[in-house]
Each structure stands twice: as structure tokens, then as C-alpha cells.
Amino acid sequence: MTASAVDVCVVGSGASGSIVAHEIARNGFRVLVLEEGRTLLPGASLATVQSGFDDALVPSPAGTLTPFGRPWSVSALGGGMTLYAGIAFRYRTVDFDARAHVAADALDPVWPIDYAELRPYYEELERRMGVARLPGADPLEPPSDPAVLPPHEYSPQGLLIAKAGGRLGRLPFPTPLAINSLPYGGRPACHCCGPCNEHLCPTGARADARSPFIDVPLPPGALTVALGSKAVHIGLGNVSRADSVEWLDTVTSQRARVRARCVVLTGNAVQSAALLLRSAQSAAPNGIGNATGMVGSGISFKISGYVSGSTTLDRLPARSPGGPFSTVAMSDHYLDDEAPSGLGGMIYEASPAEQAVCDGTIALRLHFLAADQPMRKNTVRLANSRDRLGLQKIILEYWTHPLDKRRLGYLSRRASELLAEAGVKKVDYQDSNYQFGRGHLHGGCRAGVDPTESVVDRWGRVHDIDNLYVADGGFFPYSGGVNPTFTIQANALRIARRIATQLA
């Protein structure tokens, strides 16, 4: 086993890992990024690459464990941002303190920070990579600086949805997108070539994990990225300090170890919790950071679903279908007294891959999603069985709370009403299979002020380890009701600045 030394070892290269690695490296520190995946080839889509991702075990209705769990958004250089839809909501004020809306048996949903603390990082990242939005159009949008890019025009589907929403008294607005509506940041405007979600962007109009750093120079040799390198164990120098990360070459199975002054976990909420659990040793017999059994607890995936159908057009749309996955959204049922617990969720256009008008009809589809209850029993743990690399498999134990089932039904009915108003005669419902993971991974290394009920503090530092941080969605004590990528990025930048200060 070979060993080397760096200032910081970052585990994962996605939305949070890229932010942390670049921010610390630009300050002159030596950073090694361990990335289990590799670079996606041109033309890649989720359908073509997901068979190569490791699965997780999930409980079946019969109580047995089945290999249907999805512990990755995307395992590749750049992580989930390689194939995401570019949806760039900011979390709302209520997402940072939802105590008035969660079930009595839920874990504490309060973040140890609020929107005001995170706002400057949202603003900086928006300027760096570009977000196309219409300020003030979303009734629940938190305070923000002026937009750097105008919103995208509604797609033909989005226009039908927006008009239907308006007739129902709702307030549709352009979906905020990290996709250029005009040339920006050295990247072209969107060509509306579609399909968008779950596909690589062929033009670079959609921001990815590299976009905030195109013009950020780094000192020579400051940043190294090791592809095909899976972190398997964090070594402790003493009870309160991490001193090394052991990793495995996924092709040769050769092991290596890197010494580091600081370790930052940015794989995703599931993978970071699993790595802490796999790092059991004499100083941490139940896994690092797990003295009170909280590592893995409170894992959340967001409750969600889709409704779809077709409607007839009086005339062909002025612009051809295609382009962004979502151009219109509605937050009318986010804070909603009629929703169970008074907290509903977001509804937005989620156009199917095939958007063409056929025989005068056009397909419409809506996605509805909401934060789920952060439950202690919803957890990441390790199995006795082993995966292809000889590591203990991941178990995702997740059950939808009865309150969330009612909230999901409420949102489904509201979304169905929208489609019916848009002229859809037969509305079909599709499961998102959120309960198996993959998208919207949060919790598992939840942040909080009480070490008995959380894993990390407000800076993402593991409570009992001085130099070990979690900066991905695992930090989230409450999943929030909108897409998390932009918030993961903003929080990672906040944590990275803190780490750079501590290292100096």
C-alpha cells in the first residue's frame, strides 16, 4: 500500500466536491479529490450509464432485502450535475425551520443556519455560473440580488401549463435554471435541442460542476483528481483527528492511502454516511462520528410523483418543442393551509424526452415534490454481504410517513387539476420510486447543535473530530421542498471558506 500526503482530501467531485476542492486549492493548499467514477463519454445518458452504478439493498414488503436501492445520483466525474435538469431553486425560509409542519415523531428539522447566512453564497455562485430566472415572480422566493440572466421562454408545453394555472388562480413563474438563456460565462445560450434531463448537455449551455471555476486560476499542482478511486476507510490519528484516507482502485483493486491535514466528504448523503460507518476502528468502534448512533439516520429522498397526459392543439406552436426539461413552476401549494400539515410542495413542468407535436396533440407532464419527514428509522446501514469490491453493501431502510402519503396525494390532485384545465382528458399517474433513492439525497450526516441528535455542526464538522467535514446533502437536517443542488453548492462554498481559514 502506497502513501502520499496532501493538505486536504476531498471524497467526491460533484456539486459539493468540486466547490470545496477548487475553493481550497485556489488558496494555495494541496488538494486530492478521490472520485469513484470516471468521465462520461459524449452522448451519455442516465439510461446508458446507470447499469454500471452499484446498487443498495432495500426492504421488500415481505421483509427481505432486495437489490433495488439507488445510492447514487450519478457516479462519475462531476457527479449528478453531469445529467441533472439544471433546476436552480433556492431554499425558502420555511425550509430552514419547518417545526410547525413536521410530525410529532420526526427528528428536529431546524437547520443550524438560516437563509440569511446562506444568501451571499447563493449570490456568488449565481454570478459565477449564471442562473436564468425572473425575480419576484415566485411568491415564496426569498430575498435576492437582481438576476444575472433573463428567464427562459416557456416551452409550448410550459405555456399551456402556465395558462391553465392562471385560469385556476395560481401564479405560474419561469423555473429558475442554471442553463444559459443568453451567452454567459464563456458558455453559449441554450439551443433548445433536448432532451435535457438525464442527458449530457451537448453544447455546454447548462452549468455543470466545472462551470463556477472556468476563470478561476489555481496554483500549479494545487489540485489533483484521481478517477476510479473509491474511498473505503478514514484513519484516525487519535480519538479526535483524522489523519488519512484509504482508497481502492476500482479496476485493479489495488489499495493506497493518503495522509491529509483535513478530510471533506462530498460523495452524497448515502455514500458519506456509509464511509463513516465503514471506518469503524478501535477509537470509533461503531464508525466515525457515530458515538450516539446518528450516522445514517434521517436519510431523506423527498416524496414525489408525476402526472401526464396529452391535449389537442388548435394550431402548431410558434416555437418547436424541445429544450429545458422545465420552464414553468408553481409554488401556490408550498405553504398551503389545505395541505396536510399546512406544508405542501412544488409543482413544475417535467417535459418527457419526446416533446414533438404528433397529429395535433402534445404531451404534458408535471412533477410534484415535497420534503419528507426526517425520521430516525429512515437510515443508511451496512449489510453483512459484500459488493464487487469486497466492501459491505449499503442498506437503505426507508418508509414513507403516513403524513407524507397524505401530502403526496394532495399534491397529485392539485397537479391533476392543472392538466385537466390544460385540456388533458385522461390523466395518468407515474411513481417516481423516490423511496429507492437516486435523486434528492439528503440527511444521514445531519447538522445540528446537539451532538446526540446530529452528526456535524453548523460548519459541517463531525462533532467529535476536529478536521473531518461533510459538505454534501448529508448535512441537511431537513430536505426542503425544492431541488437541492443549488443549496448544496452554496453550503459547500460556505464550508470550504471556513476550512481554508482554519488551515491557514
From TrEMBL:
Residues 189-290 form the Glucose-methanol-choline oxidoreductase N-terminal domain. Keywords: FAD, Flavoprotein, Oxidoreductase. Residues 374-492 form the Glucose-methanol-choline oxidoreductase C-terminal domain. The keyword Oxidoreductase applies. GO terms for molecular function: flavin adenine dinucleotide binding; oxidoreductase activity, acting on CH-OH group of donors. Transmembrane segments: none annotated. It comes from the Bacteria. InterPro entries: FAD/NAD-bd_sf, GMC_OxRdtase_N, GMC_OxRtase_C, P2Ox-like. Its cofactor is FAD. Pfam families: GMC_oxred_C (PF05199), GMC_oxred_N (PF00732), NAD_binding_8 (PF13450). Belongs to the GMC oxidoreductase family. This is GMC family oxidoreductase. It comes from Bradyrhizobium icense.
